[in-house]
Amino acid sequence: MSINRYNYKTMNSLLKDKIPQHFDILPHTTIKCIIHPSVIFTILDAYLRRDEDQTHVIGTLMGSVIDTNLVEISDCFVDKHSLNEGGFLQIIKDHHETMYELKQKIRPRDQVVGWFCSGSELSELSCAVHGWFKEHNSISKFYPHTPLNEPIHLLVDASLESGFLNIKAYVQLPISLVKDYFVHFHEIQTELLPCNVERADVSLVKGNIHAHKDNHTNNLEHNHNNTK
């Protein structure tokens, strides 16, 4: 079953009836973002289809600045990546550039506005991917401009372990209270737009994800038994 069948009411129940979600922000952080449901569906679908050895899916957010401080996240694509033995992140350049060009042909006005990752909390991976998007502009295609001077990081808890779909967005801000240069991720305001598609039961979303987990566990047990 395609994840694209899940509708706004399903998303609404997963999000604890808190759409739009608004969060406190620092006075000098005025960026807000609105998210198309298709973006979340794509991330959930990618999480279900991920390789068995992958704990996260990451990818690129596409969209545009539509007002003075409002960013519209209208599309996304998954980035192929790996972590080598030293724990260093490797994002497949050719795949990223190919997907970017395809998206540009469909919606020329869309630009790279940030990146997404599945998960429930920030981690070292967050810093690594965020740094890649900022430092390798010629590859990532994220170019800072007012008011979007930082890529937006969208964190989606696709596991649904809590029974709800938690979505948060961040930008990096400098910490000015210390002598050395440090940054931290700061949560920004988000709003998930409604959609009009066929109704689907929330249990189907949970069922697909839990089935994927069960299959993964069974495969691990099978491989373990075969090595005895």
From TrEMBL:
Domain MPN: 33-176
One annotated GO molecular function: translation initiation factor binding
InterPro entries documented for this protein: JAMM/MPN+_dom, MPN
Record-level GO cellular component terms: eukaryotic translation initiation factor 3 complex, eIF3m
Pfam families for this protein: JAB
SMART domains per UniProt: JAB_MPN
Protein name, entry field: MPN domain-containing protein
Annotated organism of origin: Plasmodium falciparum (isolate Dd2)
